Amino acid sequence: MTTNATELPVFPWHRGCPMAPPDQYAEVRESDAPVRKVPLATGRTAWVVTRYDLIKQVLADPRSSSARAHEGFPYYIEIPEQFKTDCSFIGWDPPKHTVHRRMAALSGAFTKKRVLDMRPRMQEIVDECIDTMLELGPPVDLVGELALKVPLTIMCGILGIPNKDQAFLHSCTEILFGGGSSATQRAEAIERVGRYLEELVISKENDPGEDLISRMIKKYRDQDMYDRREMCNLTRLLMNGGHETSTAMIAIGVMTLLEHPEQLERLKANPQLVPGAVEELLRYLSPGDLATSRIAMEDMQVGDVLVRKGEGLILVGMSANRDPRVFEDPDTFDLERGDRNHLAFGHGLHHCIGSDIARTELEIVMTTLFRRIPDLRLAKHWSELRYKDGNVMYGVYEMPVTW
Fold first, then answer.
1. Of 121, 218, 241, 266, which alpha carbon lies 20 to 30 A from 61's?
2. How many domains does the chain have?
3. Could you give phi then psi for residue 370, rounded to 5 degrees?
């Protein structure tokens, strides 16, 4: 097996199929060097960690930092400076991370009880989107009419963002996280979103409601910790994190079920399988595969490699979720596997705060969609579609379906 950076393609590596990891993941993971230094598209190098146990080790190690403003943080796409500094608690370490994540959690949108209370409204949103699909008639773009609308409507409702602003915010998010955007385009997009969020936050300061932004402002003010810029950054983090992953998962999750018709028929016949199927889809597809990176704040041993202080690590979640040491026959999609040990939502301090919301969205969509449109099928073969390959969040731009 190869062992040095010049012998592997520039990172990020690419999926040949939306339902399969890049070939290099297994090559590196199953070699004698599962932690490998590779060249990045930005011209730098970083360590890519491919094995499940080593990724969990790094995520739990306090010497590995999420500090996105650090000079050595391993960005594999060109990003503006503001992207590094205006990242909220996802780019911070304890104790600052702990305090601000707790403030968001205490505002009440992410508890299991709150998510359960939200379930009827989520169901309404899913039904409304499917109503529209049926009214439009086939072929329909499942991304635009369902996969995007459901999580974006839910998250905007939680935050108190008007529905009329959804399209604008999503267009900016596409630029910010898109692998094909330039640093200049990302800087312009983050400025546009920043201006919008500042106006929104000011309106919540002056006229608070029952939404999450208003509640968070109150929590911060009660603790004499309020900072408007940080509130804008936190809002952007929750908005992006609350819809990008779910949008990807709904679209390529539906695709995966359609491409595994025997599994889909079992699911239709027994809806009780849906929660386990959601876990298997999360493991199998791992759309946030490229979203987890760290910087070593001290020298640290990762497997057989000594990662030096200031060096970056990219933790490829899809490789971990296909690791045969943890998952039997990992490249087989088995909706009855139901294994929650996957790392699709991360691990440790930075485990996704909205994971229960995402799981519930997916459960409702998969149950309702195939009940209401049992003959759903792809209008184009998956190989003809255009994918967000190399983006921070993997996904498909459009997915026409028919019935």
1. 241
2. 1
3. -80, -15
* Residue 284: CATH number of its domain: 1.10.630.10
Domain of residue 352 covers: 5-402
Q: Edge-to-edge, what's the strand order for the sheet holding 64-65?
A: 35-39, 45-49, 312-315, 293-296, 64-65
Shortest CA distance to 258 belongs to which of 20, 23, 19, 22? 19
Averaged pLDDT, 29-44? 94
Q: CB count, 10 Å around CB of 124?
A: 12
What pLDDT digit, counting tens, does each position of 286-302 carry? 998 988 999 999 999 99
Going by C-alpha positions, the residue among 305, 282, 245 that lies closest to residue 3 is 305
Q: Where are the alpha helices (DSSP H) in 107-227?
A: 112-136, 142, 149-159, 166-177, 183-206, 212-222
Tell me the pTM.
0.91
CA-based torsion, 322, 328, 332, 337: positive or negative: negative
Dihedral angle, C-alpha 302, 303, 308, 310, nearest 10 °? -30
